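Convert to structure. Protein one:
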Amino acid sequence: MEFGIVELSRLQFAVTAMYHFLFVPLTLGLSILVAIMETVYVTTNRPIWRQMTKFWGTLFGINFAIGVATGLTMEFQFGMNWSYYSQYVGDIFGAPLAIEGLMAFFLEATFVGLFFFGWDKLSKVAHLCVAWLVAIGSNFSALWILIANGWMQNPVGAQFNPLTMRMEMTDFFAVLFNEVAQAKFVHTVSAGYVTASVFVIGVSAWFLLRGRHVELARRSITVGAAFGVAAAFSVVLLGDESGYNTSHSQKMKLAAIESMWDTHPAPAPFNLIGFPDQKARETHYAIKIPWVMGLIGTRSLDTQIPGINELVDKAQERIRSGQIAYKAMLEIRAKDGNVDPATETLFKDHSADLGFALLLKKYVDNPLDATDAQIKAAANDTVPQVWPLFWSFRIMVALGIGFIGTMIYFFYRASFRGMKFPRPALHLAVWMIPAPWIAAEMGWFVSEFGRQPWTVDGVLPTALSVSRLSITDVSLTLAGFVLFYTVLFIIEMSLMLKYIRKGPFQDVEETEAWTNRHTARLSGQPDGAAIAMPGE
């Protein structure tokens, strides 16, 4: 594959985005688990729960700090590598990102500081409120980012202005309550909760295998498994909701994920496995499960899901419709908007397909000069690479089913077998630690790669979104980002492993003594005058 400016820019953003997302799921989930542990500490006064809160809170802090550093570089890329995209849709895409920075990130960052440095300054209840505000801020931050991303998948609440050559927001609440964004948010945060649950169970299993911090590890597994059971089922159910939304907002993506070349009579089957052949447009050795795809995609038994070939034919129709909109747009711009109502009506009637006409710019400068062969080629470009999507989706689903089984098993052992766990299960839990990150990365790959060739689905082709940079410029910055992120990865892994091996900073007796001193200090009594807290 020959790498041009578009391919290098895409690769650079993919590297930075997928690396950044290594930290996001654990931040989302661990913030909630830490708040839950501190809630138990405040309500029971048992020092071991404070010990757990501080230990897992330290790992959260390391992950949060590195995650912030990796996330900041992504926003600079919109101006560096994707300047036309920023100019074209910045009025809509920029609003959620600005709100995220002003509301969620400031909230999160402020209370993270209070969480780590406020143990000796705040009462237990006040510190608990801080812990929950950190958790809320973390998840609220994800909401606004996913609203922005959801708009790229399903661009609602906006229209194109031919005079300014920009997309302009027409309905903020349509953007806010975009069904794709809302489904993506709950699916993503649920995946983060599963990630944190698997991480907590895996690290705790490592402690148990070495006979260290046994009481902390057993209780951590109990919390992680209980939280993880709900999260794992939520991921699957909300993934079904995402599939349903995709069936009417991104039909080509759904058809590519399922390697569905031809429209199947309703209800469509689900290809369990197979080997997609994009050149021949067929799937070899496919094993199908009847009805399943129709039920997931349409929630009915009589609604068809269009196949790739049918969608390519429709793309040709939309390209020709887009040419009409493009011609009307040129006339509106030439006359500075002073055109007859018929031209305005013509543009309005076909403006939804303008983006499809822009696909022709890959082949010809003026889309109106495109030949039938070029229109056909542009329509074929709307089909993403099928086999990576097909297998990435199935890896993600298989891992999701595995998480459900794992969480149910550990929840059962924690709740009904006295927190006794067989050693083979503990070894499995340790080896499973990377699995949720693999599933999360596969999910994002399906979401973003499946949208190609669009930056904003049906509105702006990726090939038109890039900045006018040289290949050398992008190659150097790509190499710089890879080097920078490699250093951060080494730092992250070193710190996480160091503090996991070190374990809790205090044992239960030291924690109980601190609790007594802290309570006495806040009440104005001499140290040691407070009533002793009940231990384990």
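Protein two, convert as well:
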Amino acid sequence: MDGARSVEAAARSVRSRREAPGKGEKLADWADGRLGIYTLAKANMRKLFPDHPSFLLGEIALYSFIVLIVTGVWLTLFFEPSGVEVVYNGSYEPLNGVIMTRAYESTLDISFDVRGGLLIRQIHHWAAVVFVAGMFVHMMRVFFTGAFRKPRELNWVFGWTLLMLAIITGLTGYSLPDDLLSGTGVRFAQGAILSVPVVGTYLSFFLFGGEFPGHDIISRFFPIHVLLLPGIMLGLVVAHLTLVFYHKHTQYPGPGRNNKSVVGMPFLPVYMAKAGGFFFLVFGVLTIMGGIASINPVWAFGPYRPDLVTTGAQPDWYLGFSEGLIRVMPGWEINAWGHTLALGVFIPFSLFPLILLALGVYPFIEAWVTGDKREHHILDRPRNAPVRTALGVAWLSLYTVLLIGGGNDIVATHLHLSINDITWFVRIAAFVVPVLAFFVTNRICLGLQRRDRNKVLHGRETGTIKRLPDGEFIEVHEPITQMELFTLTQHEQNPPYEIGPVVDAGGVRRRVKRSERLRAWLARAMFGPDTQIPKPTAEEYRELTSGDRHH
């Protein structure tokens, strides 16, 4: 009886193997044979991703970019990028009979006549603001934790390029409606271009198609905004995410985490489920913002006219510091050989990319100073890199001061202050505040390092006061956990680069290049003995925790 059953089971197995595969299986086999999808998925779908709230900053930027693309495609169906003048006769009665460009008229039509048009417009604009903010804060997280070190220098360049392109894309999109506010911003940009020596006039005529405002600027901005720049940015986003997969994700220090292992959740299904839910959360918040928070109400400004300017004309926040540079710069000019060089505009126009470039090149400067060629997958705690953290805060403080300068009229009217006083404050603060921010931040980091050292050696303060038999009062400390002990002591404190002996054993003086002297000076300034608190050694820890002196 058992033999008959085994024979029958074997026959069923043979019949099942002979049955033709299903359509889905055929399609999967076809795709895998040509694209290697199974091998690729097997290698990456179970990839581990660390879990930390700060890692969501990059996802906010990514999801905002997706919302931007979707809403932008929808808006292109109704927007007409034309500088042809028409007479408005639409739903917004206060502007009826007013001469305007077709671009501005179509923007009004989207806002008042297209079902859901105003909501989509505002979601698109809010998504742009959040996108740049998400990238900016994400890059600051990467900077302060040292996540830009080898092998992620190229990914840092991709992120920095994305930030620059996003700023330019925001400027071009902000200018498309051709309202009085955006037109003032375009005139501001045109004035900056004219300040470029020798070629400024030619650049302006080429961009605007003649004398400002010309008739070609909107039609030229449109393909740049909806096709060229988004296409480049999409390629950079794909390359950025590909390198994140290839290099594996960075992680904060902790037990079991090192440069060869990752502690986290698998990409599929855990991380994908969380990422999908977070996307809809970001999309929902942007939708709520677009529905209840008005942004860029173009109908309130009216169409652009070269002889008018909007009171309180402000660009989006990410361009405010560039305007602050020009607003607070003295009106210096040089007249020579019949030509005028407007230094009051050209110098700020040149400083704008240089300030951002300082952020972009820092990883390469630090790598050159340290000479560290190892791979780093464990993040730094910002307090353990005091000079780097202080430099980042100084950069942010300069950005904030210039942002105040870019809105000096708004600050003056809301706080009832003199605009001249605000301008002079920004002029002085632009030099003083970053220096103060550097020293204060550096001292705070050293204080936190000193506190970590005391916590390792003496334990955590309990707040309990105990009196000893000899009358001395002491505070009772409790030992910290091994996990916390590891986290507080795992960071490296390598000696800085040194030139070495200038005179060899034979008394021959060797030539030292200026670059080597500069590197040694920067190494001492950034990683020298005075820039950090020595972390406890194993001998110090054993000595203090094994005797009666440990309370």
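Residues 419-458 form the longest helix (40 residues). The first strand starts at residue 48 and ends at 49.
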